[in-house]
Amino acid sequence: MTEWGGGYVTDIAYTTGWYRQQSPSIVSLACLLGGVASPMPGPDDEVNYLELGCGHGYGAMLLAASNPAWRVTAVDFNPAHIAAARDWAAEAGLTNVTFLEADLTTLADDAAARSIPEADFVSMHGLWSWVPAAVKSGVVRLLRDKVRPGGAVHVSYNALPAWGSAVGMGRLLRLVGRQHSGRSDRQAAEGFKFVRELLGAEAVQLKRSQIVQVLMQKLDELPIAYLAHEYMNDAWAPCFMADVAEALAGAKLEWVAAANLIENFAELTMSEEQRALVNRFDDPLVRELIKDHCIDRLLRHDIYVRGARRIAPHQRDAALMDLSISLNIRPNELPLEAEMPAGRAELNPKFYRPIVGALADGPRRVSDLLQLPEVEGKRDNPAELVGILVGSELAEPALRPDAAPSAAAQRFNRVAARRLMQTEPPSRPVGVASHRLGTAAPAAVLDLVVMDRVLEGGGVDDVMQFFNKTNTVSDETRLRAIVTSSIEDRLPRLRASGVL
Ligand SMILES: C[S@@+](CC[C@H](N)C(=O)[O-])C[C@H]1O[C@@H](n2cnc3c(N)ncnc32)[C@H](O)[C@@H]1O
């Protein structure tokens, strides 16, 4: 812990990651599904994007690399994060992203804030429920000054009541961990070791919490830097959605939708009986609280708008019809069922198969997809099509459906490939920049490395040699199979997404 950290973990850097809820196209879709005018950027719009608590800035760089006309500003108070992000951005030749080292507690009152343009989109991922009240109030003051009318804000946080049964575990592992000297990651490891022991000794409060049980099962797979930033901060406190809404109202922000798009569909998130109970109320805060009792929402991703303009259903449908989407899977990978909060939902093959088939070679407009002669089913419900395909991460919105792969995005991706393979396991999911999508296409570190080698003219053997050199290979036969599948299955998808 450092004095300037105010109780936030500063002695170990955070992990590198991309979270699609931070993407303006997903944020805009959420607005439409929430019945609010979409701030969806046009292909040539000059968008101002602001990220608060950006960590290593991977997400900010992905967006800057995908959208050369955007101006991206990313803030973090950890100089190690900002130094790493600036270094990476310089190597990738990104000139449209600025990394600012500043404490959000006071940034709104600093001269440094003057350099931040009025933002069209703001994202705060992994910040709100991990920082003290003074930081939250600084954030609200900054948002009050910097979000343009009509602008949208993404905020993620650990939510109540879902976290209720494990709040005690959080406190326990932090206090026990702190009894040990050493860095926050070691303290987190010690804290979790003790929680595991106490759970083994049948401590009733741990035993009855499903969250604790599940967390303990997957603990070994989680990076220790992530665990330290997640659990070792003094101020960590899961919160109710209504309390976040009340705080953000101080910046004239109004809740409009969930950025996990599926959560905006009552039929996919709740049983008929639960929906009947929710429908007794109009107040979105009451409705969300009821929903939060019905589903397992540990991490909420919410979208707020400053000056939300309500639109009629036909206006929403017209905007959705106009959207282009790009497939994240091969057409033959279309699942026949998808996991939804309310249970498994069937995807009618007579409706979805022709649609994903038409998306095989690249993005298509939703209206064109719904007009395909082979499609059997409802052609007048673009919200359902977009909600299911994009919400289940089978597809991504495409801001520039006809754009060629851009040199800026490609350069960034190649730098990312070389950097990430030094620090992350090959299977780690990270995004890859795409000018055509205007956001990241989903890809694992291994896909980035494969892409980099293929652009050099290499093949499977070349990629294997590359991994062998870095000694990251434990099972060569398995890795060869994965590399082959990446070249044969993933690269065609990334080509269709305009990545290469
Ligand atoms: C969990 S990390 C999330 C990083 C990034 N958004 C991501 O998703 O990869 C939270 C970040 O907030 C930063 N942070 C915490 N308190 C802050 C403060 N008072 N001012 C600025 N940044 C802060 C931390 O340094 C850390 O990088």
How many strand segments? 14
Radius of gyration over C-alpha positions, nearest whole angstrom? 23 Å
Uncertain stretches of 5 or more adjacent residues: none
Mean pLDDT reading: 94
Largest sheet: 7 strands, mixed
How would you describe this structure to a colleague?
Helix content is 44%, strand content 15%. With 500 residues, the protein is α/β, with parallel strands linked by helices. The strands form four sheets. It has a seven-stranded mixed β-sheet, sandwiched between helices. A three-stranded antiparallel β-sheet has the order 11-8-12. Strands 9-10 form a two-stranded antiparallel ribbon. Helix 18 (407-423) crosses helix 19. The chain is globular. S-adenosylmethionine binds at residues 8, 14, 17, 19, 53-55, 75-78, 81, 103-105, 125-127, 131, 135, 229.
What's the short story on this structure?
The protein is an alpha/beta fold.
Key terms:
500 residues, 3-stranded antiparallel beta sheet, 14 strands, binds S-adenosylmethionine
Write the layout of secondary structure elements.
Blueprint (H helix, E strand, L loop, with lengths): L23 H10 L14 E5 L5 H9 L4 E6 L2 H13 L5 E5 L17 E6 L8 H14 E12 L8 H12 L5 H17 L3 H4 L2 H9 L5 H8 L9 H8 L4 E6 L7 H4 L2 H7 L5 H11 L4 E8 L6 H9 L2 E4 L9 E4 L2 E4 L2 H10 L5 E2 H5 L11 H10 L3 E3 L9 H17 L5 E6 L4 E6 H11 L4 H10 L6 H21 L4
Parallel strand pairs: 1-2, 1-4, 2-3, 4-5
Antiparallel strand pairs: 5-7, 6-7, 8-11, 8-12, 9-10, 13-14
The structure holds S-adenosylmethionine.
